[in-house]
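Lay summary. Proteins are chains of building blocks that fold into shapes, and those shapes determine what they do. In this project we predict the shape from the chain. Here is one chain we studied, written as its sequence of building blocks.
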Amino acid sequence: MIVLWIIIILASVVAIVWGAEMFAKHLGAAAARLGVSMFALSLLLAGAEPEELATAVAAAVKDVPGIAFGDVIGANIAICLVALGVGALIAPLPFGKQVRRYAWFGVPIGMIATAFVWDGRVDRWEGALLVGLYVFYVAIIWSIERHPPTLGETEEIEEAQAKLTSSGSENSQLRVGKELLLVVVGVIAMAVGASLLVEAVRQVTSVEETQTKLGLTLVGFATAFELVVLAWSSARCGISEAVVAGVVGSFTYNVTMTLGAAAIVRPLHILNTTQLHLPLILMLASLLLVILLAMPKGSLNRVSGCILLAIYPIMLAAMLIQ
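And here is the predicted shape, written in a compact code that computers can read:
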């Protein structure tokens, strides 16, 4: 029976990643056809990391807080160490002013979120504060750059809008219907995949401590996997600073919007609070390590990539054996 649920876990990860890709790829196209401005779209979706959000919310709905906490923390560690490590192995990742701004802003925000999670409980009012903190973060970045933050899948949304806007408007009504349908299909795939993933972990084990460890490792890596692929493919094609900023900025999205939305749906509370202490410290350390490695030359090179990738399994082992 456990083998069946493991197969379901793998299938649900595929559904989440595929759904996120459909969501991001066709949302910009649908918005362009409908005449929705990128300003409005970015205001609603800047930094959208739908994989982590869907999984954390599903975990909250099913009252499995360990998976919700583990998803956020584990995904952020994977984003910093695996996504950026893989990208840096292929080609130097630019770490200019925009990326540094996203990264440095993420440190104090990550510390605030860590303070909220430290006692193993995030109530609805704390979740609302985290969501508000994300809105404030977006507003600050927007005011400084005069442009909405390019986080997570927002870069893909912008590209889709630009491509469709330049391709003309023939069969516009038919196309917008198709694009909206694919957006809805993507959302459904993410919702179903996230729900199945959480349920599969619940069926594999009912022990909260084990669920949290699976959230920190398996679920966290699975939901961050698309950003790993994004960094890999973008590095092969000549990665831009905007893409690196998007990957780095997703760290902040997860500790604010993802965690906050899950807590608003249902307050998150685990019994073994100390189980989260080391992972939270490692999460912050991962982002700081990325910044420190990138500062001397203004980029992450192959040596930096090797260091990041080598540290990831060490952190995983530390979280599993604590």
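What the prediction tells us: The two ends are 28 Å apart (CA to CA).
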